[in-house]
Amino acid sequence: MDLISVIIPLYNAEDFVEKAYDFIKNQKELKVPVEIIFVDNNSKDSSFEKAKHLAQKDEQVKVFRETRQGAPSARNKGFKESKGNFLYFFDADDQLFDDALASLYNVLTSQDVHAVCGRFIKSHKNIEDLSIKEMKYDGDVKVFQPPFLGLLWFKDLSTTIGPPGFMYTRRVFEELGMYNVEIPASEDTAFDIDLGMRYPVATINKLIYLYFKHENATTTILKKKKSRAFMQWPRIIHSHVPFHKKHPDNHAYTQILKEKIFSSIPRMIHETNGYQKRKELFNKTKTDIYPLELPRTYDLALKLLVLTNNPILFKFILFKMKSRYIESYDDPTLRLSEYF
């Protein structure tokens, strides 16, 4: 019998624990059992106690602790403790439309795919306070063969969905492995790009969840501490460079990877104070991207940027020089109009 495992990491989420539970329990039209797995990740508030209270009332709720900090570790713990043949990862502070799980499950069990994703919206408002024209979301289902979605998501990060927009078969995690704990942020993006490169994935043109925007959100806090270039670099070197090593003949993937690398390195150099720190950073990045190498003239320009950190030189490298070394990967089939 099918079982959906809903995995919910908790980090200082005491205000959202019960709401997250209600969003799952109030799902409509779902004719398959659900287990709810809370994983507390070193919360300093009452998140763990509130989850344990729910478990005492509902035998479908399980609560665990994960001491290694970070969403990937918490999600991996939840997966290890789960029993379901279908996996759904929910973030406690997000909100779920009331037929989301049924919509994802029905597509996943009716199509020859290993994952399905829907759509989401970002808002400071709650779901019940939104005015949504459902006619924009017709429920149309499309199946994409690899590597279409992998390249699309890699090329344009604005098209990525986020964990609560997906439902996966257990087989995906058994074959691809779990979330990469070396990637402290956007580990889900790395996983989904890898998924889209290797497996057929379905999309459904339907709202699945609301990304609730608030000041205490983990992503919001991380963005305040680190720039986008520094946040994305671990994903590049721990996921995308290893994939390139295994698939060096994938031209489109390689060109997208080069564009990401050639954009990130000058940004990180420019955002680093002190010549010695910039020099150490630059040398490390060249080791990080091996076996890829920087073109000689580009390397020399970056060394000059390390030395001077001149803003005009930075802009020249980023907006003029970079494009000389990246071949076109503008595949006419890789269009957003094909996505939904």
UniProtKB/TrEMBL annotation:
Statement: the UniProt record of this protein carries the keyword Transmembrane: no
Ranges where the Glycosyltransferase 2-like domain occurs: 5-176
Regions that span the bilayer: none
Classification via Gene3D superfamilies: Spore Coat Polysaccharide Biosynthesis Protein SpsA, Chain A
Entry annotated with the keyword Transferase: yes
GO-annotated molecular function: hexosyltransferase activity
Entry keyword set: Glycosyltransferase, Transferase
Pfam families membership: Glycos_transf_2
Name listed for the protein in its UniProt record: Glycosyltransferase 2-like domain-containing protein
Organism: Nonlabens spongiae
